[in-house]
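PROTOCOL LOG
Step 1. Enter all chains and additional molecules of the complex.
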Amino acid sequence: MTPSMPMIPTSPRLLLSLALLAACGDNLAGPADDDPMATGHRLTGEHIVRYRAFNGTLLDRYPVDLWDSVIEAHAPDGDGWRVIPGQGHRDGSFEIRGVPDGHVWLRIARRFGGSDAYYWTDAERVSFDEPVLGLADGARGEDGDQLFLAVDGLDAWQPGDELSFYVPEDNVISQDVVAGAPAPGTTDLGGLPIDWTGRLLADVEPDEPAFLVQYRVRELAGVEVRAPIRATNPLLRQVPGDDTTLTATLTEPPVLPYRFWWARDAFEAERTAIHPTRAGASYYHEYAMTALPGLIGDEVWGSMDLPVLLFADPSVLEGTTELDLGVLPLPNPYPREWLFDSHVVVFPVALPLPSGEEYTIEAAIGLRRNDFTGEAVRPALTPIRAPTLAGRDAFADQSGVGASPVLEWQLPETGAPTAHRIQVIEAVLAPPFPFPPGWYITAELYVPGDVTSVRLPADVLRPDTTYSIVVRSMAQPGQDIRARPMRNSGVAAFADAVLGRFTR
Amino acid sequence: MTSYPPRIAALLALVGCADQSSDPEPPGPRTIVAREALTFRGADGASTSLPVDLGRAVIQVVARGDNGGLAIYPGEGTHDGTLVVRDVPSGPAMLRVDYFDGSAEPRVRNEYFALPETGDVELDLGTWRAGRPDLQRAITPPTELAVQMSGLAPWRANEDLAVIYAPNLGFVNVFTEDVPGAIIGMPATGATASTLRIDWASALFAPLARADRGDRAWMMQFRFRAMGGDLVGAPVRATELPPFTQHDGQRTEVAAALAEPAPLRVRVAMDRDAFDELRRFIHPRAGLSDGRGFAISSSPSVVTEEMSLESVPAELVVIDSNGVHGRGPYDLGDLDVASPFPIETVFGRFVSQYPVELRRPDGFVPIAHAEIGAMTHELPTQAAPAAPLIGPVTAVTVNGQDAFGAPRGVGAAPVIAWEPPALGTPSAYEVSVLGPGGDDERYGYGWFPVAVFHVPGDATSVQLPPELLDPTFPYAIAIRAIAQPRTGEQLLAAPRQLALPYGWADAITPAFQP
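Step 2. Run joint prediction.
Step 3. Record the structure below.
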């Protein structure tokens, strides 16, 4: 057992901004028994983080060191597996030779972070590359460098207001650049000096997205929200060792009529699909509208998320019935195509440890969208159905499922998944310090969305250990598990199912 | 399950031997299998192996490929402590095991093991320790052990200690004074008998003894006395306790009739000059010794046959470490030790430590500590005080350049070479590649071993695999010469096994940039 990541509390709240996975697919069928195993192909790939400008210009690259990662292909071999070891390199590349044609589990067990992931693929090249918007690490202000804010046009400053300065391509993220300095009523900062020592510098070209936004917590449609109130697109060039003046006038951004209507009851109705008996009533709801500067085409590169609409008091989101706040007149300084809202509902699932100790893990259903239709938000994807493990009901506790059992399921009732993440978790009663007893991730298996049956790979399940599985179904346009697992898109949905406990 | 792993030409870590055979190498391929477990050897004869999880370890063999170049042969590790690498050609080769420890800040921990040059290989990477793994600890207070001590030498408060040692439980504890509610009955000054009542749960959370599992315990009255101005501690009375069984939450009584066993005469003498004369081989600027150790102990095995550093020893002679500092002859005279243990289990451990400044690129100059040490069953005498068994290697080079002369441009896969020590006959070397960062106290807190090569004693060089070094970082090399009675063949088959006498000596190079 390697307690790589504590299972609980998992963080479904972040999931919509994390890498989901891609579509394609095939079922589990492996090569025929008489396939010439020895004369396979060469499976290669790489993991390089590439930093790019909006226009695609490569700014920097960072190879992810795979020299100390376990690289393997697990090829179906009757009811078992044939493990074909490969090799990772410091330059981010890897290769496995002699891989038979057909689907295999590509295993990459990384040292940093401790993840142990398997990808169901028949590709000859798998790219884990990650595009990131902006510089990896740009120039920084020298000791004493100042940024003078010759900024007017503020809405009369109120306590709690924030002035945020965002330059996505330069990685400048100054959430509250004035740190409450203006006196109440101020509309003109009059060259207010800001110490820029050690901070990333902005170098904004004409037409380059950059934002100076005044945020305020105020009432919209009867609830307190934090949202933009004034904004501008500044132009400036900061140079190390020089003071710089930012001259700009803020104005009211255009208003986006936005209907906030969350059919929480529709999410709640999926509770028994997560687990028929162990999932409790939802206990956490998360909502945010953000702008994604990293949206390039239909793909999302790594980037900051810029806040557009947050609820000052998140407790207004809690509940299990419809929440309809009507149409909110939302000032929006960002490109409309960048705007996404996300709705996540989190459910507690009771999964006692084998010792009898009570334990709760979290499951979630959520989505991120950018077509604000005015209709109530309902789950775009629901959990898988009728899972079986080794031919038995997988929602029930089972023992003796074997070392490499087959997990089968039916596709969700709603939505078309493009991928499933099968998270095998194990109960660890005496983990090494400082980890507490609990459920820990053993391995994560990624399969294309149309797959409904997988055999667990070799050497994942061990004797005398209790496991469970969390199946997260995902839907993301353009996902490609088999060849490019790390690809993200803006529109996404996911839904969890938590299986029963089992032993090998 | 059959696999046909490819040969991936890239790198090699080959061992160069001083006296290589000229026999032609038979053709491969061959299969390398290794098993790694921590084996508990119980006093009742039971042997329990706990496999080391290799499922997350990177497994490779570095060898010469068909084209004569260096090649990597990837292998597979499993959770049950086995690994296999197939289709390895004959010839010099090393097995890489990059362990994954799952710690919050995992560090690279590569170990390379030299392999026999021909044939299939079965390697034992395991270690062992005395004792049993299925210990049950006392958790319910009071779980009292009442030790009815008699036959004590008249007790001297502040000088005497009571020691209970149970190797099959991996347990040793020193009792110095009463602790209310937990330890009651430490003897009063002048007493020759007392009942020591120990709450095994609240005082110690200690493992419970089971007579039927072979658990045995010894009790010693340990006394510190002045010898030549230094404080020296050793048992003056001792006994093996009758077998007893403890139950959680229950009281257990046991009689301890201490006596004076036939004394073990030990000369508390160390030839510090013999250690210090080797300092110049460690590093030209190695500092004066900043720490020494002198101890006599008993281990639960016949130490000339096999020794386990994992087993819990019983200390028989300890010295205030301040006393053994300094230079020149060190001889406090003879000491009679009331040892209850068979002489074949008794050994001495004698160490001198030397500081070496290893400058890092950020300007920080952490101190690495080199050791010259000996563990031996041959206890010191007046004529033969404790002395080193082996000295450091000499003439260390990095790709042919003097390692102590700021080598440059040595490339990403340099050959590290050396001359054998002037003192002693090495049976093995451990060549550690030190990288900046980390926190390994053995080499100081500024450097840590990114890889350790286990090299046979007849080798005088090792080529580093190309991807081991990052060209943007500096590295230093620490070579530990080891002398022990296990043969080269035995160490190839089981590189972590050892027996006494066992000597070691370090040489540490300055940092160099690949």
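Step 4. Note key features.
Residues 1-14, 16-26 of chain B have pLDDT under 50 and may be disordered.
DSSP finds four helices and 35 strands in chain B.
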